[in-house]
Structures are given as structure tokens and as C-alpha cells.
Amino acid sequence: MITSATSTTYWTSLDSPLGPLLLTAGPDGALTSLSVPGQKGGRSVQDGWRRDPGPFRAAEAQLQAYFAGELKEFDLPLSTAGTEFRERVWAALNDIPYGATATYGEIAARAGASRAAVRAVGGAIGANPLLVLRPCHRVIGADGSLTGYAGGLERKIRLLGLEGVLPQPS
Where do the catalytic residues lie (predicted)? Predict the structure, then answer.
């Protein structure tokens, strides 16, 4: 989270099939969060933030293409601050390809954590500040179940349907 009085947080809101998306970026234009309404741990606009769609034009175009089924991989500058462990888990999320899933245990292994660390991995995944862009929706339970998603299970089902992992919801 950006807390320095000298740094500016930019934000915009974009319409999407998941509802309005709140995007934030730092002064360098790198995206710092993408949140949906009602998201567990999601961000909301704060006093002092500057609304400016300029830094988000590439993100808007890529998100529109993704939701239209035309884009499978995002190429955007991202900047998040987490513990070393969270950063390793988040990096492992980026390796799950479009149209595929991985289990929490697989993410633990990719992040260099033991199988016993699966709960901690789940916590790190749940704290992912960049929904959709960093594909935490592609993580499933060891038994194939669609376990938690900070943006809500309905949105997870919608995203996995879009990517062809599940039938599209009606």
C-alpha cells in the first residue's frame, strides 16, 4: 500500500463482466491493485487518490480483450509489496497458463514451500492485490473443488468458464 505523503496513487474504474473493476497505480504507472466490489481485502478509493484514466489505458485495452476471449496473457507493469513468501507465491500464480488450473499444493511446491505450508499459501493467494491480472482464480483444491476466491466464488466460476476450464455460466 502506498502511504508516503509524497507519492500519488492513481485510480480508475472500468466496467467488466465481473462488475466494476477498481484499478490503482503508483506514480510510475505500474498497477498496484485490481479489486472488485465486495472483495475480501479489496481496496476502495481513499482521500488523496487522484482519478486519472491515463495510466490505465493499456490495462483497459488488455482487460477488454481478455473478457472478449481474445487475450490469454497480460503484459502490464505490476508493482505489489508483500512479504518474501507472498511474493514467491504470487510469482507462482503467474506461471499458471490460461485455461489451466493448479492446486494449492502445486503452488506451494512452485513457491519452494512445504506441503504443510498449504494454509499459508492459501492466505498469500487470498491476499493477492491483482485479481484477474495475477490469476489466483486458477487455483483449486486438491480434489478439484473450487475453493475460496477473494472476489467471490461466482466470479471464479465465471473466469474459469471464460478460459474454457468450466462450462460458461448462463
Answer: 136
